[in-house]
Amino acid sequence: MSSKKPPYKPQKQKAQRPQRKPQQGGRKSAMERQAAPISNSPERINRYLAHCGLCSRREADRWVEAGRVSINGQKIETPGVIVQSGDIVMVDEKLVEPQEGHVYILYNKPKGQLCSRLDKKKRPLIYDFLDVAPNVQSIGRLDMDTEGLLMLTDDGALTRALTHPAAKVPREYRARVAGIVEMETLAKLRRGGMNIGRGDTSDAWEVTVDSESAGHTWLNIIILRGRWREVRRTLEECGHPVRRLLRTRFGPIKLDEDMPKGTWRKLNRGEIRKLRDRVEDPDAKTDTD
Fold first, then answer.
1. Sign of the Cα pseudo-torsion (232, 236, 239, 242, in order)
2. Cβ of 15: how many Cβ atoms within 10 Å?
3. 155: annotated active-site residue
4. Per residue in 182-218, pLDDT tens?
5. Residue in 1, 29, 4 with CA at minimum distance from that of residue 90
6. What average pLDDT does this structure show over 154-174?
7. How far apart are CA 233 and CA 143, in angstroms?
């Protein structure tokens, strides 16, 4: 597998300059000349640094505790400090500014990559192949051996809304399983209620047979939650272990049929609007629901 990253060039953000009064004597300090105003809404320092695209909120807390962060020239030691409009925030004595807008990405994840920022076993991570800011995270996860559609964003509110179990956002998969799946098994999968381990029972699925070949069956599956290895555990319980698993849809967003594995693209405005509409009105049907 090539470790070359897809050609991602983040958009340059237009720097804003502060409308601040100069120091006495009519001259601004170097810090004031470089500083940019933050949004009008006060927010915790860890959230502010995350909005700057520098790190996660958890990592921001560590930076504060390490004495790397200052506000208006004063180092802070408490993660709960509130940043006000007009404050000058610096990390390692370098000015930081919030990003304008959010990032929304669709990635065709190949097999063999973890949806994680760190791995003690040093296995390949999706972020090894994506040049994105540290606060850009996947909307849900795919296990290491699962391929297909994975969306990533720094829009935390949208991520939480889409992945909450009560949202019941449909996820569609194609699964190649061992054996020929009988009608009785399909009925069990559609009913749900099977013990799949870890104290979980299977949900009722939408499932159809796509094709059969020598000793294998391709299934089309739609589930409404994203529990840990749910598809694999359920089919294993039915006696049909998964040999290959691909996600082809998440809510209203479909994987492009001609999109090469390991490549990504930005979501367009229409797709972002569909995701937001799905969250605001879960009962509204889209072309793919």
1. positive
2. 10
3. no
4. 999 999 999 999 999 999 999 999 999 999 998 999 9
5. 29
6. 94
7. 12
Q: Which of 20, 279, 58 is nearest to 157 (CA)?
A: 279
What proportion of the chain, given as a percentage, has pLDDT over 90? 65
Name the β-bridge partners of 218: 176, 211
Tokens 């993660």 correspond to what residue? 79
Residue 231 burial by Cβ neighbours in a 10 Å radius (0-12, 13-18, 19+): buried
Q: Which tokens hold the place of 228?
A: 């840990």
Closest CA to 60 of 159, 133, 113, 158: 133
Name the catalytic one among 92, 128, 143, 256.
Answer: 143
Q: Which helix (H) or strand (E) holds 32?
A: helix 30-34
Say how far apart CA 231 and CA 222 lie, in whole Å.
Answer: 10
Task: Show the tokens assigned to 75.
Answer: 């180092």
pLDDT score of 288: 57
The predicted-structure confidence for 234-263, as pLDDT tens digits, reads as follows: 999 999 999 999 999 999 999 999 999 999
Residues 104-280, CATH architecture: 2-Layer Sandwich (3.30)
CATH architecture of 30-95: Roll (3.10)
Handedness of CA 233, 258, 253, 152 (dihedral sign): positive
**Pairing between strand 147-153 and 104-109?**
antiparallel
In whole angstroms, give the CA distance from residue 126 to residue 109. 8
Q: Does residue 126 contact residue 112 with C-beta atoms inside 8 Å?
A: no
Nearest CA among 213, 228, 278, 269 for reference residue 249? 278
Most confidently modeled range among 39-43, 117-121, 134-138, 203-207: 203-207
In this model, does residue 34 exceed pLDDT 60? no
Domain assignments of the chain as residue spans, ordered by start: 30-95, 104-280
